[in-house]
Amino acid sequence: MAGMNVPGDRIRRLNERAVRGSSDYVLYWSTAYRRLEDNFALDRAVELACSLGKPLLIFEALRCDYPWASRRLHRFVIDGMCENMRKAKQAGQAYVAWVEPGVGAGRGLIERLSERAAVIVSDDYPAFFLPRMLRAAARHVSCAFEVVDSNGLLPDAAASQVFTTAHSFRRYLQKNLPSHLLEMPQGQPLLDKRLLPLPEIPAFLTGAWEPLSERTASQPDELLSSLPIDQTVREVDIRGGAGAAKRQWQQFLATGLEHYGTDRNHPDTDASSGLSPWLHFGHVSVHRLFRELAERESWGPERLGDPRQTRGGRSGWWGMEESTESFLDELITWRELGFNMCFRNRRYDRWESLPEWARQTLAEHASDPRPVIYDRETLQHSRTHDDIWNAAQNQLVCTGRMHNYLRMLWGKKVLEWSATPQQALQTLIELNNRFALDGRDPNSWSGIFWVFGRYDRAWGPERSIYGKIRYMTSDSTRRKLKMSDYLKQWCERPADPG
Q1: Does this model's pTM top 0.85?
Q2: Which residues contact 360 (CB under 8 A, 6 or more apart)?
């Protein structure tokens, strides 16, 4: 295919069908990168449309039967759709948002759209149900089908192995990432003057396939109530979309970044960025965040540490302020470590994906007496004896997010309070993915499985229940962290949904 402005190691073909010359448009099917800027997949679609002399049709859909589908998650996505409608309209480009009204209503829709498409471009996201969905679609469409990786600064295909620790991955990044740092997606690809306008939206998009209107997207309560999704997990105050992501980012730069390295672990002075929901749904790009940090510090690649001297250290390599380097370690090392696992190991969400030493030590202690066992309903409704745990769970259920440090303790206590470690894993998956806006993400899977030893090492002394798994207690957490205001806010607050 013509045009290679998008790096070749970010592009994959999912079928062997030809690019069709007699066609009406190039189709960009937005499934994970739900944004119209800083998006290599959209860049590729624009690139192909321009080289083929075809208009572009952007199609963003929302199924109703994905696992843990709820009002909360749907509303966040629809917020982004509403914003994308306005942006595409301003750019004079064709954009269709579609919300599936009932289970199975979308069957055949992509195949029908492909009938008049030269090629389909979609998002190469390695987690959740999306890889299976795209592979299945590629088998049934009648034109060429590509997926493009716009997940992180390092292309997922660049590393040929699964990294088992953050240190080993960080060393790899320090040696290999510099060559990718100048590969940035276009800021506003829809403004490419070579793009032809699509004369009209396909006429068959009616009835059950009727596109979402801007009016409904801006006031979706009635629509949400009509859908076969979890109605008990209600919307939260956090709004989706690139605009909301930008406001959160600007607030973090103004008030949080300077104190990130020292205060982000303290619930009372939480200096975390809070960007994970927008990163998860693709409303903001890690490339944009990195570019703006670099501009803020007048940074260039010449300030990087010598690749020959890299030893995997968490600070000092970027040549930026200490707090910025701390943030970049979370944004790049830890986030992209999760993408590496999901891309290279399709069983990333299975017990068997844990390190052998972790599975062995947990098996050896599986029959150890538990101080207390809580069922999932008790945990969901924050009815344990531990006020810190209850506060963290209340925050998750009521807001769709949880303080990052407390999420680690939250997971460790569920391991301690469950009949088996396998049961604990399933409980954490269910609670996190049902209520967290950033659940179901590679970074979320990393956090859940870290509880059971992923990316960690064997610790001593060996303990009951945990074996050699890293141990955490609420008492030590209370001593280390500033959290009195946090506990006042969340301990007594009822968990509304469910």
Answers
A1: yes
A2: none
